[in-house]
Each structure stands twice: as structure tokens, then as C-alpha cells.
Amino acid sequence: MDMRKLVGANVARIRRERGLTQEALAELCGLSQQYLSGLERGQRNPTIVTIYEIAMALGVSHIELVQPDQQGAG
To answer: How confident is the model over 17-58, as pLDDT tens digits?
Structure first.
């Protein structure tokens, strides 16, 4: 799987699980809503620092943003 799409899908899934809008997450992590939208669609190539900042805002480990979703496996 394309790593950009994987990270984007994980961010979108966890954001929704937390009940956050893109706008709310953007405020928490200091990024723009437009950037997050592109990231969630797999159109952005986030840096390690960006992944870390988003993870901290979501309250998860940065590892969770780069791992395949285990819920659907099996």
C-alpha cells in the first residue's frame, strides 16, 4: 500500500473515532484544514515531525499512523 494513503486513512479513521472534525484537529496540531484534507486523501507526503504532531493531537502513538489497520485484518 502507498504509505501516503496508509497514513491518510489512519489519520482520518482515528480523527473520526475521536469525534473530531478536520478543523478541530487542525487547531490541535497547528496545521491547516486544507493540509489535513490533502493528507487524508493521500495527496500529501508528511514529514516525521508532522506525523508526530498529528499523533500527539490525536492522543495516539506516531506508530499507529504508519501501521496497517489491524481491525480489518483476519
So the answer is: 999 999 999 999 999 999 999 999 999 999 999 999 999 999
Domains of the chain (ranges plus CATH)? Answer: 3-66 (1.10.260.40)
Which three cell numbers mark 27? 487547531
Q: Are 42 and 4 in contact (CB under 8 A)?
A: yes
Predicted TM-score of the model (pTM): 0.90
Can you give the three-state secondary structure of 3-68, one letter per residue?
HHHHHHHHHHHHHHHCCCCHHHHHHHHCCCHHHHHHHHCCCCCCCHHHHHHHHHHHCCCHHHHHCC
